[in-house]
Amino acid sequence: MPLTGEQKANAKAIVEATKKAGMDERAAVVAIATALQESKLENLGHLGDRNDHDSQGLFQQRPSSGWGTVEQITDPAYSTTAFLKGLKQVDGWQDMPLTYAAQAVQVSAFPEAYAQWETQAADLVAELWTK
């Protein structure tokens, strides 16, 4: 999927937050693939009936589920850190298929959907990790 400047900036923000959290490139790949599935790397506000309940931001996190305030979950650094905090709690996430790791955090109705983004996410991380 071709990315806009905004989408690339959001991918870079995910990579930066992953580094700041002291996590590795695999964590960034899982996070970017998740954001690609959840929002196409667009920092979405509330879309009414077009999105799930009160889901917002890159990861479609929900204030009502304890992810943070609307302001927090629409901040790419905060939402990435929140996602990574959840990922850290998944035993063995480093060695499991990406879709299982993402699903363990996101609890999506479509858990297999994350896998389709793994290659693009890995390419983005390879491009952005050393910048």
Mean of pLDDT:
92
> What is the radius of gyration?
13 Å
Number of helices in the DSSP assignment: 6
Helix content: 40-55%
H/E element string? HHHHHH
Query: In terms of per-residue confidence, which ranges show pLDDT below 50 for 5 or more consecutive residues?
Result: none
Categorize the overall geometry: globular
Give the percentage of residues in beta strands.
Answer: under 5%
Specify the structural class.
mainly alpha
Compute the number of structural domains: 1
Number of strands: 0
**Terminal Cα separation, in Å?**
21 Å
Largest sheet: none
Molecular structure report:
This protein has 131 residues and is an all-alpha fold. It is built from six helices and no strands. It has helices spanning 5-20, 25-39, 70-73, 76-88, 98-106, 118-128. It is globular and about 35 Å long.
Strand and helix layout:
Elements: H1 5-20, H2 25-39, H3 70-73, H4 76-88, H5 98-106, H6 118-128
Helix pairs in contact: 1-2, 1-4, 2-5, 2-6
Distinctive features:
6 helices; mainly alpha; 131 residues
Short overview:
This protein is mainly alpha-helical and 131 residues long. The protein contains 6 helices and no strands.
